[in-house]
Amino acid sequence: MTDLYAHDNERWIPGFEVDRRVVLAKMGPYQTIFERPNNFIKRFYHSVFNLPIEEWTLPVTPPKLGSFCSISVSVSISFQATVSFAREHSDQLETINDYIKRHYENLLKDSIDQELRSLESAEWLDIGTGGLEGSIEDLIHELLAIRNIQSRCRCTITSELFDFRKTGLEEELLSADPARKAIALRIIRKQRESKEQIARERHENELLEHELKLEHQERFLTLLKQETQIIRQRQEEEMEQVRGALKAEEDRELERIESIVRIKNKQLEHETELKDSELQSKLEEKKKHASAYDEVQIHLEKEIGLLAMEKQRLNLEDEINKTKRARSRGWVFGGLTGSKDDVSST
Question: Which residues contact 78 (CB under 8 A, 6 or more apart)?
Answer without folding.
Answer: 14, 16, 53, 54, 55, 56, 151, 152, 153
